[in-house]
Amino acid sequence: MDSLINEIKSAQSSAELEELRIKALGKKGILTSQFALLKNLDEEEKKGKAKELNQLKGEFEREWMLKKEIIATEELHKKLLEEKVDMTLFTPSKGVGSAHPVMITMERIVDYFVSLNFAIKSGPLIEDDFHNFEALNLPKYHPARDMQDTFYFKDGMLLRTHTSPVQIRTMEKETPPIRMICPGAVFRRDYDLTHTPMFHQVEGLVVEEEGKVSFANLKYILEDFLRFMFGEVQVRFRTSFFPFTEPSAEVDISCIFCHGKGCRVCSHTGWLEVLGCGLVDENVFKAVGYKNVSGYAFGLGVERFAMLIHAVSDLRAFFESDLRVLEQFR
Ligand code: DAH
Q1: Number of domain units in the chain
Q2: Is there an atom of ligand 1 within 6 Å of 298 CB?
Q3: What is the Cβ-side half-sphere exposure of residue 116, based on CA atoms within 13 angstroms?
Q4: Residues of the chain scoring pLDDT < 70
Q5: Residue numbers of the domain that contains 47
Q6: Ligand 1: does its nearest atom lie under 6 Å from the Cβ of 162?
Q7: Residue 95 domain-assigned?
Q8: Cα(90) to centroid(ligand 1), Å
Q9: Is 50 exposed, middle or buried (CB count within 10 Å of its CB: 0-12, 13-18, 19+)?
Q10: Last residue of a domain, which of 89, 120, 154?
Q11: The domain that contains 294 carries what CATH number?
Q12: Residue 193: what pLDDT?
């Protein structure tokens, strides 16, 4: 027994210590086998011997636990030393990442409106028919639904085709005045040079007491915004149709590549279409229970802005994660 205790004291590792535990108390251990012999003794002898064995066992276990703790602390210490990171070590540069061009553009757009006190709102990517269509004055079977090739789920839910449902969700929750933008991803079944199934929009909405907001306000802010984004361009409003605005307009800027002379990018028209807007349709206010208010709204595609600003002709370049392309926007 004394030699067992000495062995514990000189053990160097938890593995060695474990071997000693097995040697003493394992199935064929020294102490275990002595306990096994007890059954051959008569009552009187058994009592005495059992007491003695239990004392030895107790002593062994105490010493063993003590040593176990010491070794565990030593081993932890050793491990921490081994894993120490040398912060002064020289490593060749791995290069620095950069924001994605679409996100850079998005941030610039958001910055403009935040500086004018617009709040940033967000909504779910998986929408229901009511918020994506119905409440935006797009009832079932309305032909304008075809403008947006929708991804549907089996249960009738859908991937939002535009950020306009966030207008509805915000108006449902809040009372006017409202002054918001909603930047976010949207989804459509589309894939070619200028369309990807996922892209980003920024939606804007302003709602005030009736009569306090006019088309002139909308026109002013969008002209100023477009010059902030594209520099000294001409801006033109063309009458158009959106179910959720009346009157509606599409907004063009003079072509930033040919300055209005006509080129391939502007299809020789001298103009580039950049966003949609209008005064909020009365039916939209009805859907959210607003009365005696007026407002304007606008929506734009962030990738389209990024393509124009960076003169990228194939939208898919943004989404192929080719570092040779992305590094040019740093
Ligand atoms: N939701 C439209 C789309 O995705 C964009 C849009 C146009 C939003 C006019 C508006 C708006 O708020 O007034 O095509």
Answers
A1: 2
A2: yes
A3: 18
A4: 147
A5: 2-89
A6: yes
A7: no
A8: 53
A9: middle
A10: 89
A11: 3.30.930.10
A12: 81
> What single-letter amino acid sits at 75?
E
Position of tokens 């920024």? 202
Report whether 296 contacts 218 (CB < 8 A).
yes
CA atoms of 7 and 23, how far apart (whole Å): 11
Kindly give the residue spans of alpha helices, DSSP state H, lying in the chain.
2-10, 14-25, 30-37, 43-82, 101-115, 129-132, 165-173, 215-230, 282-288, 302-309, 323-326
Whole-model pTM: value is 0.72
CB contact at 8 A, 298 and 167: no
Q: What's the length of the chain?
A: 330
Q: Is 276 in the pocket of ligand 1 (CB under 6 A)?
A: yes
CA distance 306 to 315: 9
**pLDDT at position 111, please?**
98
Q: Cα(201) to centroid of ligand 1, in Å?
A: 9
The whole-number pLDDT of residue 147 equals: 65
Q: Which atom of ligand 1 is nearest to the CA of 164?
A: 1
End-to-end CA distance of the chain: 73
> 67 and 160: one domain?
no
Rounded Cα distance between 265 and 131, Å, is 35
Under 8 Å between Cβ of 318 and 102? yes
Tens of pLDDT, residues 225-258: 999 999 999 999 999 999 999 999 999 999 999 9
Give dist(CA 305, CA 252) in Å, integer.
12
Ligand 1 centroid–CA 310 distance in Å is 23
